[in-house]
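Q: Got a minute? One more chain.
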Amino acid sequence: EEAIRLYDDAARVMRTNNMREDLRLARSYFDRGRLWEALGGFEEALRCHMQGISIAREQEQVELFAEFAMAMAFILSDSALTQAAPLLEEAMQMLPEGSGQLGTLQAHLAFALRSTNDRPRIEKVSVEAIEHVRQNNDAVSLARALQLSIMSLRGFPESLTTRLSWGHELVGVAPAVPNRHDRLHGIYFHLLNLVEACEMEEFANLYATYKADASSGNTLHHEYYVMNLQIMLRLLHGEWEGLEQLIEQALERGDSLWRGADGVYGMQMFMIKRATGELARLPTELVQVAVDAGNWKPGKLAIYVEHEMVDEVRSLLPAVIEECEDVSTRSA
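A: Always. Here it is, folded:
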């Protein structure tokens, strides 16, 4: 927060002295945006990046424009990710031929396309991104592209084999990433894929390393993610004692860091109440939080059934059946 204040002071001096053309002003917006992102201030971060990208466009600073576009793609919520796609495509068109930034931009574009649910296009862009980045022989850029590609395809069960392959490659290059937050982010999503694949021995080994790295300070997001992984493991093992308190603590930690924390909380409470036969006792407000969390249709259907919400069941059931049949067909 002190660093943000200093950046604010510097930007104020440059604006007062008519230094809009000085790229240090645009760079100060970028750095402030990243700091706000680390603190969970996503709206403030987005405002910084919008101001900076305007300057970069005016000054025809292609690489800086691309950096801002990528940063915006990473912090926008799922519902607004499509706003980032045109900026990323604009940046790709501005790049000179053979630019080393192309692959990284493509990976961010795949990430921004998540909200379109267009799996073939997302996967195609992701594969092209990784191929381009591999040509640069840059482990940091490769780790970033792999991480974004894995995140882009989450929610498509039939992509698990691809995500696992990319995740194994990511684990190999992650030690070369100097920024601990960035290094840990990719590992976290690979851990989720390992759970999805029921590769629990590999998960346990990687989780121990991840937890130790995340617990060494200044990684607030990952301290929260560690708590969520602990909750996940206890849910899987049926260790109920004290679990609701841990879920409450995770919400308290995550609420200021990530706008989706309440949705995760709702789903965690749904899972423990369902497992202990108390789903009907789930408070009405938590039912809505759980239902609103993401797009997990089977979970929503279970809540509707338990609470005898007949109209909602009738409305959602065809979509659940269609989704299951679609996944079965594509996985065959």
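A: The chain has a mean pLDDT of 82.
Q: Perfect, thanks.
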